[in-house]
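Re: your question from the hallway

Yes, I did run it. Sequences:
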Amino acid sequence: MKITKVLGTLGLVAALAISAQAAEKKVRWKIATTWGPTAVPFSSAVTNMAAMVEKMSGGKFTIRVDASNKHKAPFGILDMVKLGQYEMGHSASYYWKGKDINLMPFTTMPFGMTTPEQNSWFYYGGGMELMQKAYAKHKVYSYPGGNTGNQMGGWFRKEINSLDDLKGLKMRIPGFAGEVMAELGLTVTNIPSGELYTSLERGTIDALEWVGPGMDIRMGFYKVAPYYYTGWHEPGTELQFLVNQKKFNKLSDANKEILRVAMRTAAYDMYTENYYMSAEAWAKIKTDYPDIKIKTFPKPVMDAMKAANKKLLAEKTKGQPMLKEILDSQNAYMKKARAWTILSDFNYLKDNL
Amino acid sequence: MKITKVLGTLGLVAALAISAQAAEKKVRWKIATTWGPTAVPFSSAVTNMAAMVEKMSGGKFTIRVDASNKHKAPFGILDMVKLGQYEMGHSASYYWKGKDINLMPFTTMPFGMTTPEQNSWFYYGGGMELMQKAYAKHKVYSYPGGNTGNQMGGWFRKEINSLDDLKGLKMRIPGFAGEVMAELGLTVTNIPSGELYTSLERGTIDALEWVGPGMDIRMGFYKVAPYYYTGWHEPGTELQFLVNQKKFNKLSDANKEILRVAMRTAAYDMYTENYYMSAEAWAKIKTDYPDIKIKTFPKPVMDAMKAANKKLLAEKTKGQPMLKEILDSQNAYMKKARAWTILSDFNYLKDNL
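Structure:
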């Protein structure tokens, strides 16, 4: 073999080794979120995911986080991911119910599954397959993006003693719960988190629901709307990671798995983090915020919510086979899972009150 | 520059690139588990973890799973990991209470935290730090390894109508719950899962608790002990991954994170998988296993268990500052978290019975 040939071969090996490394180094993604940069634990779920991806890939796969103050389109996440302006997004699937009704049930449903019930539906009971099926027409993959746990029913300026007290109120409440409230005579709207306090303070809205004590109290809602109602409408709110299909399919197998596992851990961790934040905030509520009045909607109001929910679901699923398929799957699974929840955790808690 | 020098430089670059890859390729670990190879979801938590590590590392980090039928030492996991015979183990921390009492509380405690409460204590409420502190003297790192959720109280041959019916029974029940049962007059023992059915069938034991419907029914216990009691003693049983400290510290930063995240996801997934399995099994219990008699311990028995638990804890923590520190941390956090659990999930379930 001539020296020049050896030189050429070695050069090629070196070049290939270097270029293989360089190629690996090129994955630089961006994620757009619906939230502000300090909306912990929504924001921390995203930074937690991005940090895991970076560390696990040895720095070869990084994801820049653009919060809503950067991209200015808190409710434009699905479109931006679909168009490839961002490789990924973090939002809540029910925000797109006006665009595609089939995406709504993957966040939560009024009187629906609790978080452990819903997680087991997603990962072992067919939920993930249905979610991919519903998102396929948008050329986007969707993954659970973190659960808030059972949400509080919201902040009201005045006590709600009857259905009449609800009529005519303007309330920020998204998802199907908003339709239930509209049926009861409220005017409902969705507003990005950054504008919630101002909207409530200025009277653009009379009431709102956001998440629970861990997130709500730092938002200051209690200063203008001190009646804090327990939940019925979002028993296990799951956010979503959205990923542009084309971009995902181009990843190496290792990076696909790194991303999948990082999203999954970040999602689970968010539920755990919010549980902790809620427990801590709740423990301080009586001493630090004595003016907050904890209330439960009166039974006639709750009964009217349940009836409206049932009626609207029947109307909504007419001529919507995929929506019906998703809701039927959720309801059939919930029936089984709820029996177990009652026998296990519920009875245990009851015996130890 | 002479051709030979160029050749030498290029050769060195190529050799370095190749040897760097080869060095990365060398991580081949083994994990020993307390369980048999088909004890889903305990066994699947481990294979799930190992599969994630392999995929995320692009095959450069693999972990061979040795179930108890291979290594023949189901309760020898801590020792084997400590001595470096295995880099990792998967077991339950309360199995070592005879060896080191401080390791006991990291699995579960009678009348203790539910799974979401305990997870939030581990990851955000100081639990992980206490667990590492307790395991440090064994030169082992410990991580949550999967939660069973609320466990059933166990299978009995005869109905338990009074404290007298419990006295003299031989029961398989590990952890602190075993000490509570001993205080009530039972003879308690721990037996590996593979020998449970035979022990019960042959009368070596009169009763046992294992996990819950998802795992128990396939074990066939109902054939010989049809009275199935609801739980009090293991409200959120967390298994543990154990990792030899020296071996872990030698991993690259990327592999450390890959392992940490894979263990965390596998642990969370196990809870979700067991929830699903329990819901499915529970839904079929009445139709497929009509001879199983679901029971709750009578109130005087439950009250005696609570009193024994309290008395024994006071005795146990005397002269044991670290055990006291761990239990105090759990109890203080549980008090806060339970108030939130009751306000959120418990009330929601109650309103929708």
